[in-house]
Amino acid sequence: MHESTKRLLDFARRSTATTSNPIxxxxxxGKFLEVSSATMTNWKTRGVSKDGALLAEAKLxxxxxxxxxxxSFSAFTSDTKLRGGDAAAAQSASLTRPSIADLITTLASYFxxxxxxxxxxxxxxxSRVALRPLEANSIAAMIAAVMEASPSRAPSKSR
Length: 159
Description:
single chain, mainly alpha, 434 Repressor (Amino-terminal Domain), 9 helices, elongated, disordered C terminus
């Protein structure tokens, strides 16, 4: 079985263990996710697809990056019991992070202080984040490099 499929099945087993309909095997996982047996067979040999990981994230709350790449995540601990649709809410509640409005305001302040060439260089990278969210970390690094190279540099930390 592919490593990504093992991670998904393991998470599904743990997160539904105390529910009235626990996922105990590969077939039950496919039924829960409402995907065909052919898709499940494909995931078993080739790995979970990006769309499949996003589906599992929506239905089980397991971060897609963890499924696909084995990225560790601190939002879930061994004693956390998550159930189906409650998983995403539990994950969001357990993470301490700024609101999207705060992030956009901060990003906008960087762009206001940047010169036109820098804004033109960074804009396509920002649109890639929306199109390829699983690549957000590497895209963010590229945006940071563009902003750091700006003649006007990023705004001071006093903002």
